[in-house]
Amino acid sequence: MSKFEDISSCLKDIEDRYNNTEKIRKKLANYNEPIQVTFLDTERKIMILVDGDQGIEVKDNTEDETAPVKIDFTTEKTLIDLFNKDIGAVKAYSSGQIKVVEGKIRNLIKLKSLLF
Amino acid sequence: MGKSDKILTIDISSKNVKVCLISDKLELGSVSTQGYDIINEDVDGFVKKFNMDDIWDKIKIGVKQVLQKDKPEKIIGISSCAQRIATVFLDAQGKEIYGGPNIDIRGIDSAYLIEDRFSEEELFKITAHSPSLMFTLARLLWFKEEEKDQYENISHILMLDDWIGYKLSGEFYTDFTSIGESQLFDIKNKKWSFEIIECFDINPELLPEIVNSGVVIGDLKSDLIKEFGMTQKTIPIIKGSGDTQANLLGMGAIEGGNIGITLGTTAPVHLVMNEPTIDHNLNFWTECHVVKGKWLIEANTGGTGRVYDWFKDTFISDSHKDANEIMDEFLNRVDPGADSTYAYLGPELMAVKDQTSIKRGVFIFQPPSLIGEELPKLENFARSTIEGICFGILENFQALQPFTQSEIKVFCSGGMSKSKEFCKILTNVLDNDLMIPHISDSAFTGNAINTLVGLKLYPDYKSVIDELIQFKKYKVDPSSSKEYRAIFKQWKYLKNKIDDL
């Protein structure tokens, strides 16, 4: 049975990864750009707000069109598969299942351990 | 010089370990080509490494194969080159802790350490390379973060070509072309960047001595002479270079204003410069050339050879005829523009530092559902694939021209340069005459030239090239070139529309 069965469990895990992993907080110590995640199949939007190493807030069904980092997933299943390790991030990325719509590579690399 | 005197050259490319014997007159002898596997260390595909024992075994097998075949009386010297960004870390006993290929991007997990300490501009001004996740510095910091015990055991930081030199001679040396791709090096001043090295608390004793390419660094180890069945007492090892610089040398691109296009798995386009100009847009990489006082600026077209091989393997591999010949027949049969068929399969203007998404592969063509006399044919897709590659090269070629005031002269080598039809298209797309050296695998020639200069058989690189390389020249057909200018405009117009897919 898969560990992650829906988006909510993935979002919970993002918060847990941040709160329970010092290495991830260290990586994000200088990061504070809001991240908007969009699932194109359901049009569901999520905001991830990282305040350096001070805290994280994940807001489901929320959007901010001005977010400097925007990542699209073709389906909700893509994120679930990534969290269950059924697909690798590089494969999902190169096959177009994940698309970075906006964001600088210098910032995006810091998000890898949090999101993938 | 004896009749069967040969130079032994080794090249670790992105797919193969290649060993070749080549004469002191630059006549190609036997070649051994062996593929190797790259190990994926994580499910995501970021962390990759070589099996270094396997690579070394293949080098030794290759050497034995070519010696057995050609039976040279004497090997006058050995030189090598290897993929440029590939890095090797050794322990105090010289045992490999890590060897990683160009495509190992484990640095994605550690590059934040670099980004937090240096602005993009600061780092680029020193190293002229970006993004940092690709290079030796980020890989070293990855070990510091993720594999502390292994990091503490690192005693030697080498680029892959340096490692070949070490395995053959037992000596630790790097050269400017190789270490210039590490992000530990100050490109403009041609010295270690102690600003970077001290910032990340890297022990300078781990770094090898830097020498010029084309310098004798030692002799082939006696146990290897015995293992290879050689009768000579000593065989000098000459420091080689990064593979691209070897290719540029072997195609004759060594003067300011020369542009060299290496048609391998990717197609880096390099302009030779008389000074180390750094791209203000922080995009194109500046590198050291093998020739003293010359630098290179690189705009990389991306996976051109990969696209060509994919097309052949996917669409024409079942045929009993050679796929390259069929491709040439297709190119011969179809007019430029391929009945308004356009291919967007990756080759394009270099923008690696901003590459946050992978563009979709697209063919645009007349749909077969329309009522018309002409239906889309395989040869149209073949021609559009080749034209798409050439247009990608053109974008990079044009981007580099503002970096020189010298007269442009274009050289080209690599697998696809063997195709007469491809060379004709590229010549007319670039609207520049094209010089093709007599040996298309010019990395071998470059290694051999390094050997001839290192052994002081010639006073400099230019005299070897002038005397020993024969060129085939493709001349521009002005009417064809005019036609391609119009096709390129349409290709670019459509590209701008589909890039966001």
Notes on the protein architecture:
The complex is a heterodimer of chains A (116) and B (501). With 116 residues, chain A is of the alpha+beta class. Chain A has a single domain, classed as 2-Layer Sandwich (Nonspecific Lipid-transfer Protein, Chain A), CATH 3.30.1050.10. Helices cover 39% and strands 25% of the residues of chain A. Chain A has a 5-stranded mixed β-sheet with strand order 3-2-1-4-5. Chain A is globular and about 30 Å long. In chain B, the strands form 7 sheets. Chain B has a 7-stranded mixed β-sheet with strand order 18-19-17-16-22-23-24. Chain B is an alpha+beta fold and 501 residues long. In chain B, a hairpin with a 7-residue loop joins strand 4 (38-40) and strand 5. Chain B is built from 17 helices and 24 strands. Chain B is globular. The A-B interface holds A 23, 27, 29-30, 85, 88-91, 93-94, 96, 99-101, 103-106, 108-110, 112-113, 116 and B 42-46, 108-109, 111-112, 115-116, 120, 131, 133, 145, 353-358, 360.
